[in-house]
Design goal:
The structure is a single chain. With 311 residues, the chain is of the alpha+beta class. The chain is built from 9 helices and 11 strands. Helix 5 crosses helix 6 and helix 6 runs antiparallel to helix 7. The two termini are 34 Å apart. Bound molecules: (3R)-3-hydroxy-3-methyl-5-(phosphonooxy)pentanoic acid.
């Protein structure tokens, strides 16, 4: 028997990095860009992992114990008190660029664990799934806030704050984003660790930046829900400047943001861990082509359009 599952990429609209320090952040799933897991049951007793994008094709026990894929499978088996009676052939694939701020690690883990629940015919609550993915995220990120696993597992837009009940949000009026992948990938673990270093060096200064980011989150979300695109764009630009102050932007990302705004986007910012990865630009429908071209001309490796809030 073969069991298939998938999980979406995500983009953070406002609040990355500050969310690690307990501030709120807003994130959306990107349902058209997904990670996939396919698990076939075997008659032998091995668990074989095939993940070509990660250069993995081997028996799970040949992976290190802290490999995120092995860890996810073992966590699932331990938590659900299962000792498989036969083998499993696990195939993982993804349309989500790795280490690009789109939550590829969380999406792969989510797809994998969802498929394991199907193999063993177990029901699950999304919160249980999200909690398991969070434990695996700790291997990817060190000190994840929990936003990636939440948005990927619940597959709905969230206003997320650590240790607070999750607030699901909706956007009554559709809006357009251009997402540009810079083609540069920096592990989130790296930028999160660097922000921690500067926080330890200058706590008051960094705390003030984090509080300003919190204001962008609140004002930006209200503006998006009211359809005040101009204001939402201003908050995105401000959020990007604050992320620059946290040292997580880069020349490439700044150039993509600058080109997007110069071409008429309401606003633009890096999204995710930074120092590479993606830039998102809020754009009026009639300017989509112009903004997309301008972002591509800034050196983005790929650019695409998503409409958010459309039923
Ligand atoms: O780079 P991504 O997609 O994993 O997003 C990371 C978001 C951060 O706020 C930088 C880290 C976190 O755990 O929230």
């Amino acid at each position: 028997m073969t069991f298939r599952s998938s999980a979406p990429a995500k983009a953070i609209l406002f609040g990355e990095h500050a969310v690690v320090y307990g501030m709120p952040a807003v994130a959306i799933p990107l349902p058209s860009i997904r990670a996939y897991a396919e698990i076939s049951t075997n008659i032998d007793d091995s668990i074989f992992i095939s993940a070509p994008a990660l250069n993995i094709a081997k028996d799970m026990r040949q992976l290190s114990v802290d490999d995120p894929i092995r860890y996810a499978v073992e966590l699932f088996l331990v938590q659900k008190k299962i000792s498989p009676q036969g083998g499993l052939h696990i195939q993982l694939s993804s349309d989500i660029p790795i280490a690009s701020g789109m939550g590829s690690g969380a999406a792969i883990t989510t797809a994998l664990i969802k498929a394991l629940f199907s193999v063993f015919q177990l029901d699950y609550a999304k919160k249980e799934l999200s909690d398991m993915v969070f434990m695996v995220e700790k291997i990817h990120h060190g000190t994840p806030s929990g936003i990636d696993n939440t948005v990927t597992c619940f597959e709905t837009a969230v206003y997320y704050q650590k240790n607070q009940p999750i607030k699901f949000i909706n956007f009554p009026l559709p809006f357009h984003l251009i997402i540009a992948d810079s083609g540069v990938s920096t592990p989130t673990r790296t930028t999160v660790a660097e922000v921690r270093t500067i926080f330890e060096q200058e706590p008051d200064k960094i705390q003030e930046i984090l509080e300003q980011i919190r204001d962008c989150v609140t004002n930006g979300l209200t503006a998006l829900q009211e359809g005040n695109w101009q204001r939402a764009g201003e908050e995105m630009n401000r959020n990007h400047s604050l992320l620059r102050e946290l040292t997580v932007s880069s020349l490439e990302l700044d150039q993509i943001v600058e080109n997007a705004v110069a071409a008429g986007a309401y606003g633009a910012k890096l999204s995710g861990g930074g120092r590479g990865g993606i830039v998102i630009a809020l754009t009026a429908e009639e300017k989509l082509d112009r903004v997309l071209t301008a972002m591509a001309n800034a050196g983005a490796a790929s650019c695409f359009h998503v409409e958010i809030g459309a039923e």
